[in-house]
Structure formats: C-alpha cells, structure tokens
Specification:
By secondary structure, the chain is of the alpha/beta class. The chain has two domains: about 5-30 and about 220-310, Conserved Hypothetical Protein Ylqf, Chain: A, domain 2, CATH 1.10.1580; about 50-210, 3-Layer(aba) Sandwich (Rossmann fold), CATH 3.40.50.300. Helix content is about 45%, strand content about 15%. The chain has helices spanning about 5-25, 50-60, 85-90, 105-120, 130-150, 175-180, 225-230, 240, 245-255, 260-265, 275-285, 295-310; strands at about 30-35, 40-45, 65-75, 95-100, 125, 160-170, 200-205, 210. Strands 5-4-3-6-8-7 form a six-stranded mixed sheet, with helices on both faces. A two-stranded antiparallel sheet has the order 1-2. α1 crosses α11 (about 275-285) and α9 (about 245-255) crosses α12 (about 295-310). The longest helix has 21 residues, at about 130-150. The chain is elongated and about 75 Å long. The N and C termini lie far apart (about 50 Å). It comes from Halobacteriovorax marinus (strain ATCC BAA-682 / DSM 15412 / SJ) (Bacteriovorax marinus).
C-alpha cells in the first residue's frame, strides 16, 4: 500500500533539495541571476555565455549564406523564436521552419498557420521525420532567395553554391533536419538539447551547403508558465529545474485541460486532486514502487516526461495565437 499522505510533501522537499544542489553547481559562465517573472513568481533567468557567443558568430557569418532557416517548435511558435536573433538577421532572407507538427493540437495548428499567413512571414510547418515535407524547405528557400534578388534588381539565375544557415532553439530538431536534408547521418541527433556545440559546415545534396549553429535560447522568459513550456518541450535541459518540477507541471497542465489523457494512458479510474497524488497513482499503475511500498517518484517523473515528449499523452499546443 502506497503512502499517499507523503506524496506532495515528498515532491516539495525533493524539488527544494535539488534546487539547492543546482545552485551550488552553477558556474559563473552561465550568467544566471534571480529575477521576477511578470506574474511575480521568482525564477532563474539565464543566458549562458556560449549562447551569447553563438549569437555573435551568427551575425559574423551572415554574409556567407543566402538564407537563414530559423527552426522553431510548432507547439510554442512565438516563444521558440528569438527577438535578439531577429535583430541580428536584419534584412537577410529568412524562412521560419516550425517543426513537430505531429505533436500539435490540430485545431490550434490550423489557427497558427492562418496567423503566420496573415502576418506575412516566410514560414513552413513540418515534421522533420517526413522526408517529403523536408524537401519543401529547400524548394521554398530557393524561391525566397530568387524573389529577393529580383526585387533588389539582380538576376534570379543560379550563380554559385546555395548556402543556408540553421539557427534555432535547442532540441527543435536541427540535427534531425540536417540528416534528412542530406539523406545521411551528417549531424548528431537525439532527444537531448545542446548536441551541436559549435558552428559546422555540412555538405548536403547537390549544390547545397548548410552552416549548423548551437541552439540559441531566448534571453528573457516573461512568465513561469513560459519557462515551464520550454522545459516540458525539452528546449531547456531537465537538469536546470529537475525532472520532478517539470513532470509536476505537465501533470497539472493535463489535469486542468486533458484529464482523460492521463486516465486512459495510465489506467486510472479517477484522478486525485493534487499533482503529487496523481504522480503516485501513476507510480502504482506502472508498478514503480520501492521497498516498504513507497512510490518510486524519480522513475515516474522520467516516464511522464518521456511519454509527453513522444506525444503519448495527447497532441498538445501550449501557446495560443496573440489576441489583439
């Protein structure tokens, strides 16, 4: 029999313990400061030194490329963009590539497609695992560059190699997209943010060359909810907040908006009233139990996050289109 009474207290103590440990391990190079979100909750606002360096390098290499592919997560279409990046790019041709449509709420996805159309941004919604969709990226990129050259009084004819630069949020699928574009394993890929550690030129099919860059995070996260969206979609490493806090957020979000998804996935007849107790229900359902009948929360946290990120807890789009 599980100790239901201790579930929420266990989570609170564990989150506090891990937060203290993370504070002690943080290095000065991460430029982490304690700030206050717009909703008045306290949180760590961070902009690691290597990301500032990456942003500077993007600006330095712009003259070497024809177009910049900005990869975003379609579940958070605006939050996964970067205002600093937009300033750095200036008038350089850009194509916003919104990945992971296979994990999105279909109705919200339709709203976002219309929003981008109405706002005149060059964009494309794709699933990078779909080879046919990936081919559309190079076709659309060439169209944008040719149209820009003609508009500037130049020729639309091909004159040299076609060079693209890939930028975007960590873990949005950059490496997977590169491998799909190249038809081979040209870059590391996996469900882990920060795999690309430096800029690298990659030869793709035909006359295409692509410059891959490390993931670039937003400098400022306005609310705790936005921060948790980034954690849940794995743009921010689990080590930053700890899996328990992110898993609690995911469970709370689903309890509020999609309770049936939790009940059906984990064979729960009726959800408890707190996230801690629901996590304990999941532990019981999955058989994640330690000695003396205590729930194995660490294993449960990892399972919930893995299931969510694979789309097994439903098709979720966190961000809504801006209201006028």
């Amino acid at each position: 029999m599980l100790n239901v009474i201790s579930a929420d207290n266990y989570l609170k103590v564990n989150i506090l313990r891990n937060e203290m440990a993370k504070k002690a391990k943080r290095s000065y190079s991460e430029d982490i400061t304690l700030t206050e979100y717009r909703d008045h909750t306290k949180a760590f606002n961070w902009f690691p030194g290597h990301m500032a360096k990456a942003m500077k390098q993007v600006g330095e290499k712009l003259k070497m490329v024809d177009i910049v592919l900005e990869l975003r997560d379609a579940r958070i279409p605006l939050l996964s963009g970067n205002e600093d990046l937009k300033k750095v790019l200036g008038n350089k041709c850009r194509l916003i590539v919104l990945n992971k449509v296979n994990l999105c709420d279909p109705e919200k996805l339709a709203d976002w497609k219309k929003w981008f159309d109405d706002n005149g941004e060059h964009h494309i919604f794709i699933n990078v695992l779909d080879r046919n969709a990936v081919k559309l990226i190079t076709e659309k990129s060439r169209e944008i560059v040719v149209a820009n050259r003609i508009a500037s009084g130049g020729s639309g004819e091909k004159t040299r190699k076609f060079r693209m630069m890939m930028v975007g949020l960590p873990n949005t699928g950059k490496s997977t997209l590169i491998n799909s574009l190249g038809g081979r394993k040209a870059a590391k890929s996996g469900d882990k943010p920060g795999l690309t550690q430096s800029q690298q030129w990659i030869k793709l099919a035909g006359d295409i060359e692509l410059l891959d860059t490390p993931g670039i995070m937003p400098r400022k996260i306005e609310t705790r909810e936005e921060g948790m969206w980034l954690c849940a979609t794995h743009a921010i490493k689990d080590q930053i907040l700890g899996q328990e806090e992110v898993a609690c957020f995911v469970v709370e979000y689903l309890m509020k908006y999609f309770p049936k998804n939790l009940e059906e996935k984990y064979n729960i007849d009726k959800l408890a009233t707190s996230s801690g107790e629901v996590l304990e229900q999941i532990s019981l359902s999955r058989g994640f139990i330690k000695k003396k009948g205590v729930a194995d929360f660490d294993r449960t946290f990892a399972t919930v996050l893995s299931d969510f990120r694979k789309g097994e807890l439903g098709l979720i789009t966190f961000e809504n289109i801006p209201m006028l």
